[in-house]
Structure to design on (238 residues):
């Protein structure tokens, strides 16, 4: 699964790279994340499409469907909707209302995953070899708080079976986020894309543009600090 990621660029930089209009550009929240923990439900920059044009907007990690339930209940639910499995996304109530018409990408500089070695969990940072960002396939939703009518936008990262590199790292659950190539972005964002094509886009990518290195477990626990990305020397891997 994917519960930890990085966004170390400013919102306007993602907007420029993806040729997207920056929504709420006067928002002074220029928070960057060296270690974004999904269970803290950070507001991360996403790229979606509206009327054929791309837009960059912050959404909360942990999808909340527009159900007639109190916000406290939906926030609890969002702990279980950080990820959406590609194999069941069309069937589960939380996700099936979004998969065909509300798709976006989460641009990240990389993400973290754990490798189990002799019952110990070793954190790794996975990042692109050539491109500056991974385009993580996501779905999103709008939830309106019945108490104050305030709208909340949230997303879930779509996951799939692991490719060869990710299977060697995430070697227990054998999962990875779905990564969309730059050439596939328009098809993923377009709500008119057929179900068959959406399923095709959710297949595991090859690992030619992926690299990984071990990071220090204590530093990754610190939180949103640059040290979270520090590489552990090879001599200390095992």
């Amino acid at each position: 699964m994917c519960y930890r990621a990085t966004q170390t660029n400013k919102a306007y930089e993602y907007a420029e790279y993806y040729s997207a209009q920056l929504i709420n550009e006067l928002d002074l929240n220029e928070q960057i994340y060296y270690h974004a923990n999904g269970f803290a439900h950070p507001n991360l920059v996403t790229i979606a499409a509206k009327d054929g044009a791309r837009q960059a907007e912050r959404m909360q990690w942990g999808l909340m469907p527009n159900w007639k339930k109190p916000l406290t209940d939906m926030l609890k639910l969002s702990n279980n909707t950080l990820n959406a499995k590609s194999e069941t996304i069309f069937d589960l109530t939380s996700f099936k209302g979004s998969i065909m018409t509300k798709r976006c990408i989460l641009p990240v500089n990389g993400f973290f995953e754990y490798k189990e070695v002799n019952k110990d969990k070793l954190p790794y940072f996975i990042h692109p070899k050539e491109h500056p960002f991974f385009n993580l396939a996501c779905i999103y939703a709008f939830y309106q708080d019945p108490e104050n009518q305030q709208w909340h936008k949230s997303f879930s990262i779509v996951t799939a079976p692991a490719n060869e590199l990710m299977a060697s790292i995430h070697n227990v659950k054998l999962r990875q986020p779905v990564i969309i190539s730059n050439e596939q972005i328009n098809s993923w964002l377009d709500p008119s894309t057929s179900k068959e094509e959406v399923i095709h886009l959710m297949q595991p990518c090859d690992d030619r543009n992926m690299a990984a290195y071990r990071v220090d477990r204590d530093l990754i626990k610190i939180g949103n600090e640059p040290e979270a990305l520090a590489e552990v020397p090879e001599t200390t891997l095992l």
Remarks:
- The mean pLDDT is 92.
- Residues 71-78 form the longest helix (8 residues).
- The chain has one domain: 4-109+133-160+174-210.
- The chain has seven helices and 14 strands.
